[in-house]
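Inputs:
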Amino acid sequence: MLLDYADMHALRQLGAEIRDQFPILDQSVCGKPLVYLDNAATTQKPRRVIEALSHFYERDNSNVHRGLHELSNRSTAQYEEARARIARYLGAPSPETIIFTRGTTEGINLVANSWGGRFLGPGDVILLTEMEHHSNILPWQLLAERTGARIEWLPVTGDEGATDPALLREMLARKPKLFAFVHISNSLGVIHPAAEWCALARENGVATLVDAAQSAGHLVVDVAAIGCDFLVFSGHKMCGPTGIGVLYGRQELLEAMPPWQGGGEMISRVGFDHSTFKAPPHRFEAGTPDIAGAIGLGVAAEFLDELGRERIFDHDTALAREARERLAAIPGMRLLGPGTGRAAGLVSFALDGAHAHDVVSLANEEGVALRGGHHCTQPLMRKLGLASSARASFYFYNTPAEVDRLVQTVRQIERFFRG
Amino acid sequence: MNISELYQEIILDHAKRPMNRGLLADATITVPAENPSCGDEVTLQLRVAAGRIEEARFTGQGCAICIASASMMTRAIKGLPCDDAATLMRQVRAGAQGGGPMPAGEISALEGVRDFPQRVKCALLPWEALREALTIP
């Protein structure tokens, strides 16, 4: 199903309109115009976000919540405004349910340490899918070691990354304490039915954590509609700065959770023997936060909402489908992920006779930025019998012309290794 | 040097048709090595007798640079006294890292990885296995 003329026109238009706002895209790599297709690793930043950071440091920089002077008031107001903006972006009931973290990884570690440490004990089960990123595996393994809880795995089968709904139903009926799953798989591009899975978990009294690292900037992620207990993501994968991310938690759960790090800003009263802590979200934000990062992330969220996340999703997935269709024609091509239906805006592939690092190195020489390797999903890759795969991941500033460059480049690489 | 030049030398030939790939039934030393960051895995097997490497084979998966390096290495060390193999290992390690000249012969093709710091560990993985096999610190 190649793109028709109207589709092509719409895609070109969004890509072209928006590219001006991303200064980094206008450069050459190895003498060729950069084609940036590593958006699942990190996205580029629009001028508006870059300017928000420098504006903050040039005009408003001060610590939050503790100064009584003008600059502190300004930075506090902007920091809390960013929290409110993220709450709206996620359809969260209140800003108090939004905790700023360093990113997805820290958000999961926070939940594992605080919620898991308090509520999980020997024999309790944490249910994960076999498709999880290492960052949604290791915090639970560490927690399991500490508490005697254990991990069960929802199997993933085939290159398309299928899971069995009946089996999931069965595993949830055995009442694990938590079901933590990736919303969009970074290695295969599968989109999981988060609302359906969370509803099923809720029926069984199972808490849920959604890893929205790959979805938060690519489709409408509404925590009320999804009905999850926790949701985590990183700012840098949605046009925001690095070093800032978000944990959304259901209010009742956050209130019942102990702090996980101690420090300034999270206390009510500190004594020599005993201290009491602030209510969420500040209970979970010890020390001076990444104020500029949070403000930048708020600006990024606003930017994405202006563009329209439905439009972004349609754009990314149309480019990915087009790329997939054309890559399929290359000899020795093994395409991973579902391709249609539940597929996100990325294409993962393995080329017979060429290791992904060879593919990525040679693509770089053509100015095309891809990712290659195990994508921090080693258990999954091992199960699929793959040492590595190469991945092209799209965002709204990519264009059909860049899909052409990708396909040409991979064709060339295939001939290079075959020849 | 660009990377396709590096590949086009002898490396691509060795990567496509590696020498000494496969299991060694009567190995006296077996050493697995891996690069966790990229997933390359090479297991080196040697048959050593009277201080000499009589046979060397490898199994595993990796990028073209890693497999070519394993292929060239096993060819080069077969028949060498262990001490000479250790010297060769040190020379290659220095050569890949830019700390000295690469030994002459086909192995010199690996010198190009100097320009690609991320790929140095690909080239050196089989040699790391050799280092461990010969118990060189």
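The beta strands of chain B are 29-35, 40-49, 52-61. Flag for discussion at group meeting.
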